[in-house]
Amino acid sequence: MQRTSSQNQVKISSFKPRVGRPAPKTFLIPALFACLAVLIPLAYLILRALEANPKDLLEIVFRVRNLELLLNTVALGLGVVLVSSVIALPLAWLTARTNIAAKGVLTLIGVLPLAVPGYVGAYAMLAATGQNGVLEKLLHVNIPRPEGYFGALGVLALFSFPYLFLNLWNALRGLDPSLEESGRSLGLSQWRVFWRVILPQLRPAWLSGALLIALHVLGDFGVVSLTRFDTFSSAIYVQYNAAYDRVYAAWLGLMLLTITVGTLTLESRFLRNIRLSRVGSGVARHQSMSLLRNWTLPAFGFVLAIAIATLIIPLGTIVYWLLGSAVPDWQALFFAVQNSAFAAAPTALVATFFAVPLAILGTRYASPFTHLLERSAYLGYATPPLALALAFVFFSLRVIPDLYQTLTMLVIALSIHFFAEAIGPIRASLLQANPKLEEAARGLGFTSLQAFAKVTLVLIRRGLLTSLALVFLSCLKELPITFLLSPIGFDTLSKQIFAFTSESMFAQAAPYALTIVIASSLMVGLVLRQEQASNVRRKTQ
User: pTM value?
Assistant: First the structure.
């Protein structure tokens, strides 16, 4: 039975799409449309920036303020990645490679902070600390409120480290222990084996997680605004919404986009020519668990501190303000939920609809051109949200004024931003689906579209549902694009949380915060369910 499943695995993994195979127009046209939708607004952002008077251009670009924003943004990104690594690596090691008890619970502690959006975490920390905060009222402990660089750094690290934890956790469980055994046989201590053998193998996983965190920090608007720390994102909003300097806002958006492209380039360079797979024959051994012994209590203390900071204090604070406040405005909450759903549901459908042809072209009709199309869709996700929103403002005002500040424009912008999230699960499902079934359907006389509808669509239905759920829940949590592009009076959960927290109205923000945390928890459940399903598949192979 084991031999049969191994042979099947080789057959599946040996499939390669036919390079140069002509792509059907049925998939090519919507894919081209999606890519143009990503590129055109960014082109208009550049055109708006170039409208600056040549005499004023040097003053706009080389302002001392820009250098300050650059240093703040880069320092915050590097700091959050560093602190997240300090939290995520030990926690991943404890749950993946030690004999610590209750690993399932500890893994949940490493993943559940994903259910708390950064601006909700900032709200909870601000409401819990300072004068008249929850900690002072209950424990008579007055902890300064998180403000400035270190405030933004702490909040972003606490609620971003799960991206890195998940990557390192999966990588640690997949390492081949024979390399560690070879190191120990050469006389290396356990500590030196960790530094010289294990850590280098974690480099790709760390880079992937660090990239996600860096992109998240570069595009963050809610946390830096609430903690009053100036970065490019907060400056873009101020220049556009308060100072009404649209040209300077466009240049700030381009500067932020340049930092993002530089980050992506660095990550790509670091990953170049890395090869960590086994090259010899033999069967990979089971990993041995490290014994904690005297480190058991400190390990549990470390995990407990993470749980208190990321789960107990935020959720406890939300519940405290909710129970201690007057009766919530249920009608306003209902309309916020309704508006959030009205934006998220069509976005999930649109993003998934256009993600399907992009994923099919990349997996079934591979060529340099289709690869470029698929990669270009990720540009919308890599573009900082406020820069993308600003691009849509300029595009709509110049080309389609009637589209400005409408729900349609909001859905289009959100769809472009979340294309990448929709492509991933569909692409994974297509790689698992046997392409010979599609070829058989075409051999029976079906067109590419008919073969897709009758065969492929059935095979990738789980990936489609996952994409819909991921995009829907990401839209519920999204703040910057919604803040800049939503119609006047279109209040969503994220906008209400930010508005009330900005005015220190913590009790009024509590019901909105609790609602969005519950909704976000669905995404965490989806991640864990997918991981559990992949574990089952690995065990049966």
Answer: 0.81
